[in-house]
């Protein structure tokens, strides 16, 4: 029997989407799993499991929410077999594949094996005694009142570039449209295997980002002139580092997989959802 795991946004109304999945599952004889605390909130008729059980037992994970929910679903599916289908319940939902009205058609397509799988790269960050995983980005961010982020980037064991900034963001291609993009980094296709290092509000002579190979070892060293820094992993504070501390970063290709239905390309979604505009010097008839 196929098992589908539901990952729900903690606040948004997901009732219509859940009912669509449950109705489809009843017709197919599919087992529906849900994280106990999440399905209790909406009185959902799914089998309550722990987050770990959902990741290991599901053949498909359905994320119902925004980009934060999608990232959480990808972390649950990390190193597991289940691909993730993102259903947007929010405003932007850049990482989601479909909106709620498209869900029945998407489930039918999955039933008919009319979909593809897109691998997604993760980055593991080790600092102190802990290791954390990000699918969007790892950022070292200045703590207000404690000085700027003075950080050296070491690549393949050698010093490469140093920044003094409000933050230094190390993003995956998936995360290129998130914090890194806001800080001036490039939009990067998820098909590219690379890490993007982007300073936010840099106040140093060199203020450009860099693109690094996933085959290189990367480390961030907090310099003596730095203040205490927060380590943000996919937008959540996971700890703090101080001058003299080091964060070792390792890219991990194919960490998770997402469902693609072939309705739009990454570039079409990026152009539409980020509202990319062309130069005023280019007539609309020339492009778009």
Summarize the structure in words.
The structure is a single chain. With 288 residues, the chain is α/β, with parallel strands linked by helices. The protein has two domains: 3-115 and 261-273, Probable inorganic polyphosphate/atp-NAD kinase, domain 1 (Rossmann fold, 3-Layer(aba) Sandwich), CATH 3.40.50.10330; 121-254, Probable inorganic polyphosphate/atp-NAD kinase, domain 2 (Tumour Suppressor Smad4, Sandwich), CATH 2.60.200.30. The chain has helices spanning 15-28, 36-42, 51-57, 67-77, 103-111, 179-182, 266-273; strands at residues 3-8, 31-35, 47-49, 60-65, 84-88, 98-99, 116-127, 130-134, 137-142, 149-155, 158-165, 167-171, 194-200, 210-213, 218-222, 229-233, 236-241, 246-260. The strands form three sheets. It has a six-stranded parallel β-sheet with strand order 3-2-1-4-5-6, sandwiched between helices. The longest helix has 14 residues, at 15-28. It is globular, with a radius of gyration of 20 Å.
